[in-house]
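Re-run requested by the PI after the first attempt was lost when the workstation crashed. Everything re-entered from the original request form. Ligand of interest: fe (iii) ion.
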Amino acid sequence: MKNKKIYKAHIIYTKEQSRFEVLENGYVAVGADGRVIGVAADLASLDSKDAEFIDFGNRLLIPAMNDMHVHAPQVHNQGVAMDLELLPWLQNYTFPEEAKYADIHYAERMYRRFIHTQWLFGTMRSCVFGTVHTESTRLLMKLYQEAGMGAMVGKVAMNRNCPENLSEDVEAAIEGNEQLIAEFNQTDALVRPIITPRFVPSCTPELLKACGELASKYQLPVQSHLSENTSEIAWVQDLEKESTCYGDAYNRYGLFGQTPTIMAHCVWTSGEELEMMKRNRVMVAHCPTSNFNLSSGMAPVRTFLDNGLRVGLGSDISGGHDLCMFRMLTYAIQVSKMHYQLDHNRRFLTLSEVFWIATKSAGSFFGKVGSFEPGYDFDALVIDDSVLHPDEYSLLHRLERYIYVGDDRQIVHRFCRGKEITEPKM
Ligand code: GUN
Ligand code: FE
């Protein structure tokens, strides 16, 4: 077996947010460990001794997509029930659906469907919410392992303001988490547990405290929801009276950057909360379609970037309706253009900025992911855009057109940490 591979294609990626790196007929060398050794415009610049050579011809080679906030057990509700705002939407549509995951057979059918769709659209890494059910969440992790795709998967913690059949007492929550941690928490593993308090209104102070202690004890990352909807924020203020802002309600339980933390939405984040996120390096998962569908608002992503906050993009199925992360880039630009309409001082996002957010910026949550610089995991997609009249466009316009009007049919190869990922079993 050859110990390294060299791929030739039109290579496009973003080292910096302000511009694309474009290598027409470029080369990328990948080691046996699945990490990039080097990327170059000409073969002579790479050590090609003993390398297997693969030529992708006139195709585009780009970093794979990362979905930084998604609920796998909401896949059956994808594209339906978007006539309510967050809190009644949870009670009426989302909680009843998630309760079905007590049934492992239902869970398997839906989770296979979910992972298959992510594969179709070239999403090789995700931060995923499961349900409160330990067995179904274990199954979800196993299915990601079987597929070879990377995921941080959370057993959801919730014990108040929810139906009885989704509520779990604190001891059971700790016990279930520790089972999954014992089984899956290995350094460098592609599939890892993440501590997942649903959001403050779903968790008693005791449960939030237990979540913070688990994150600290096992040095695990944390994911949750933050400042998504104005009624939700008012409710949190009422529930956590000592907290100075919603983010502080997580911070006081060790769930706000004490270990790597990602918070979905942050539509209404400003002031103290923004400062705390910056200080604690908390990443924002921006979910534009969800914010539109649940009528939550428009997250100020330009402000986040200007303040040096870490940002990634999330589909937030089924608040969001679209699992295609390429489309999410276009929605993020469109939201920023609405901000611009309201205030011309807010420069809208450029394509290289959203591409960087979705790849290198988001990928940093998983380690060295989302770029083709040496040392990065080779997470990549090969795009055959021959049906989109590539000969009439520059390489960057080919990429832009693919992002705006392409779909899964043009993705002809997918790689996660150097390994080609073939179609998962449905
Ligand atoms: N806040 C708490 N739970 C959820 C959820 O499932 N989806 C969204 N969008 N927000 C939430
Ligand atoms: Fe969500």
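Saved to the shared folder this time. The longest strand covers residues 4-16.
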